[in-house]
Write a structure and sequence with these properties.
- The protein is α/β, with parallel strands linked by helices.
- It contains ten helices and seven strands.
Length: about 300
């Protein structure tokens, strides 16, 4: 496939950036080389180094997003930029621009809404903590959504216009990749993973992702998404746990009452009854919210289908 095949498409390369001096220019040049017809946007997120200057000198359109966080930047980019195909990558020169034409062609040939460039696992380019976290979170999402994804955290994504313009981005930080993935899985939008090379960051640059603090935020956001998109599963699980606690507290009290005719542990009986009531309420909450969630999905799908 040659670049000429893509000349009729309006392609936007979206690069969210925060303090990527020493890497952003190489990233821009790489995409300019393989996709000379594309428009490259760098959205700066309050950088304190020369990121903006390097990006402008490299030929990118530079805009600013004052609200801190990658999710905040992506929400702004999706709202502002108009294109037929969107390529999202990081500005740290770790993702391979040479793979972009293949990712785009895969999107077009298979009529997909998102193609994810999965990252090669390299100890030098990809710290052990990040590898283990990615595997664990990928397995968690695969379990809940019956999927078989390898890299839910990859920031290298090619997306259709209708996908970009119909996702209500809610995340504010590094949870954004998880949100994009879950949105596609939940609504059964067609997506595919394609292996790509992942490079080590240039010397002198540092990753902004903290393995533990950002990992905890991502885990919390995953549970938020599960509660939001699968409320019956979430609240039914909570109801089951509460029911087991209620029974473990209440059964001895009931046995004692049958044997003696007395309720000697009255506070325990009240506690068991209260937890049992909460368990029932949790189950009915899940049933109600499940119907609400189905209505929201139908509305989103109609909006999605009306996009061209």
């Amino acid at each position: 496939m040659t670049v000429d095949n893509l000349s009729s498409l309006k392609i936007a390369v979206l690069l969210p950036c925060y303090n990527e001096e020493g890497a952003i220019a190489n990233t821009i040049t790489g995409f300019q080389t393989v996709l000379p017809q594309s428009v490259i946007y760098v959205y700066d997120n309050n950088s304190t180094d020369n990121t903006i200057l390097e990006a402008r000198h490299a030929g990118a359109i530079v805009r600013k997003e004052p609200n801190q966080g990658k999710g905040e930047v992506v929400r702004r980019m999706f709202a502002d930029v108009e294109a037929d195909i969107y390529i999202m990558a990081d500005g740290d020169a770790t993702y391979d621009p040479q793979a972009a034409p293949l990712l785009i062609q895969t999107l077009i040939d298979n009529q997909l809404d998102m193609v994810v460039g999965t990252r090669s696992v390299s100890q030098k380019a990809y710290p052990t903590g990040h590898i283990l976290g990615n595997i664990a979170f990928s397995n968690l999402i695969n379990k809940f959504f019956n999927a078989s994804l390898q890299d839910v955290f990859s920031g290298y994504r090619v997306m259709s216009r209708r996908f970009v313009k119909t996702i209500p981005v809610l995340s504010s930080g590094f949870e954004i990749e998880t949100e994009l993935t879950v949105h596609a899985l939940h609504h059964k939008f067609p997506m595919l993973e394609v292996p790509t090379t992942y490079h080590a960051r240039p010397e002198g640059t540092t990753s902004k992702l903290n393995t533990f603090s950002d990992g905890f935020r991502i885990l919390s956001f995953i549970f938020f998404l599960i509660r939001d998109v699968k409320p019956l599963l979430f609240f039914a699980s909570a109801s089951f746990v509460l029911s087991m606690i209620s029974l473990s507290l209440g059964i001895p009290v009931i046995i004692e009452f049958i044997e003696t005719g007395l309720v000697a542990r009255f506070p325990t009986a009240i506690l068991a009854s209260s937890i049992g009531i909460i368990a029932i309420l949790s189950l009915f909450t899940g049933l109600i919210l499940d119907n609400v969630s189905r209505g929201r999905v139908e509305t989103k799908l109609l909006h999605y289908l009306n996009r061209h």
